[in-house]
Amino acid sequence: MLFEQAVYEYVDDKQFGRKRVRPNTMEGYLSAIKCHLMPKWQGREMESIGSDELQEWLDGFELPGAADNAWKTFRQVYRWWLRAYRVRIYDETQGVEPPTAPRRKPNALTARQANEAMRDMRGQGFEACALVQLSCGLRPCEAVALTWADVNLSTGEVSVTKGLHEAFGEVYESPTKTEKSTRTVVLPRYAVDRLRELRRAGGARRSDRLCPSAPSKYRRQVRSWFAKRGLKMCAQWLRHTFGTLSLQAGTPIETVALMLGHEGISTAYEHYLVGNSAIMRDAQRAFGRLILDAA
User: Fold this and answer.
1) Is the pTM for the entire model greater than 0.85?
2) Are 80 and 138 found together in one domain?
3) CATH number, domain with residue 171
4) Which of 12, 34, 67, 111 has the highest Cβ tally under 10 A?
5) Domain boundary among 66, 95, 124
6) Which tens digits make up the pLDDT trace of 242-275?
């Protein structure tokens, strides 16, 4: 089978088959196919592509991030072809050393910076959405999908059941990322009080979203607002800020993972705890007090 035929059938299956992928995920695959896979592999028989040639192709990328995207997409197509046609040949992707994409270290606001941001953000069109995200650690797509009906201003509970995404120029709603991402989180009192003020002042209906902007615009607004104040911060890092400050405040890591909607505590440990000097200093102060009090 020619590579382009395998790609065509793979895309058709992932868009309309039993195990469909989300449109924004498909958009990323199609971009990698157009920019990286087709220029290299179009016209080749799938059976003729070997691990040595794949390795040489990946090693030729100047940008590790582009190599990582190209590799993940190629592997998806190749392994789909093996499964779909029950091809009994060696999986050539197993003999390839995958590229390592540079890992961007996220920023987190300090407690003081978070306090100042919530104060200075008053009156911004995205304030309600950013306030909930920073106070509960929601993913940006979860925060922009919230309606006022999802927020109980009596109990402070927020029902997280969906995400809002963009793909192919359209905005669409989808279920949460994983089963554990569908959750109920609780706002702190300061956030409930401010949301009550915002709802009264804006006359919002229950069906209205907290964020009037599309997901991409919300992300741009948050990034731009912080940049004007000399801070490198994006919407995703508001979630990181919540996780980091929660752990620093002494919240058990399993509770933080539950609030963030992680499948397990390993993700919370890797991204929010390891190497956090403020948390370690607080832990050592508590340890020191324990030792001294025992004297």
Assistant:
1) no
2) no
3) 1.10.443.10
4) 67
5) 95
6) 998 888 888 888 889 999 998 888 887 777 765 6
